[in-house]
């Protein structure tokens, strides 16, 4: 039965556009619609198809279904839609206009473009490689891992040796931020533009407002967000955002607690800060809404995790590995954004503290950590972790990004 379900999911993902446009889609119940909208696809303009399908499904039984519209609208990645589509189609839709939550999301996306943020477009075949930057003990080293062949290739070294730094991929521009060098904490930023034929690291970028190491970063609505970390042996609660187009850093509301060695991910228009260190390993999780500009606690993880890594995939947030006391562990749990509950996931093959992870083609890849040189991956379809290969060397706290 599991193989049959997996085969069905694979078929639907490959033909998602056609499924969303079919007459059968209009007959689905709300849970089936949410399931479809969670699926990833390599098809072009799939988010336009998702938007149109949500409108059609809601209007097919508008009296009974309009109460679900704002929840379904959150599954549409507005940053993958063109400004013309947002203005000419979405902004004029009555269902959107009648929902304060939907209008807030729309205004936020359009406003970010007025500030210079780019529209994100995924193309077929993109993001099948992984960039691994630095890590304690090999700070300037950068390598690329090819997921299809399990092969490694050398990339240009960073300009500055950065331990415990953080990085994001903004439209194939790799922004590497902060970290520490020779016991000095950094707020400088450098960038590697993978769109160039011969990319080189460029240090001519504005510095963060605060020096940070062992902090976390992610992308949301065309902006880079950085949260927490350490500075002069003080654990930080402060956060800031960066507009890559306007080249400007801005402070945002502090987290409820100070965190270092934590994780930060974005999902459905919100930021999630998980675990880390606030004097001891913590299991607390808090969520930031850019519309209200507030951090709020959500249900805590089952396990206290310091030095964990995290990814968002299929409407769930995964908390992977970490440390509590002197115990490193391989355990994994995930938070379902709909049910707002944490459930256990099979453990990794190796204990990992200070490893890093990313998602490629719906699969979670994990690299590095204290004493860990192996690479392993988790496929939600099989619910199993599998070993892939060994890393070029042991890397603790590397930056890992799909490219």
UniProtKB/TrEMBL annotation:
PANTHER family: KELCH PROTEIN, KELCH-LIKE PROTEIN 28
Entry keywords, A to Z: Kelch repeat, Repeat
Lineage: Eukaryota, Metazoa, Chordata, Tunicata, Ascidiacea
InterPro entries: BACK, Gal_Oxase/kelch_b-propeller, Kelch-typ_b-propeller, Kelch_1
One protein family per Pfam: BACK
Protein name: BACK domain-containing protein
Transmembrane listed as a keyword: no
Superkingdom per UniProt: Eukaryota
Residues annotated as domain BACK: 3-90
Gene3D superfamilies from the UniProt entry: 1.25.40.420, Kelch-type beta propeller
